[in-house]
UniProtKB/TrEMBL annotation:
Keywords: Membrane, Transmembrane, Transmembrane helix. The chain crosses the membrane at residues 12-29. This is Uncharacterized protein. The keyword Transmembrane applies.
Length: 49
């Protein structure tokens, strides 16, 4: 196998791993974003030091 093919295979595996982690964590990320918005988002810095 040439070095270029090895690098492409590694890039594909890494991309698949990143996508799998994002899909796995998506429900909890949505929940955290909802809590963050309810707490005030970017404007909450003045209220919660």
């Amino acid at each position: 196998m040439s070095g270029e093919r090895v690098l492409k295979a590694e890039a594909v595996l890494l991309g698949a791993l990143v996508v799998a982690v994002l899909v796995w964590e998506l429900p909890s990320l949505r929940r955290e974003a909802r809590i963050w918005r309810m707490a005030g988002g970017l404007r909450a810095g003045r209220r919660y030091p």
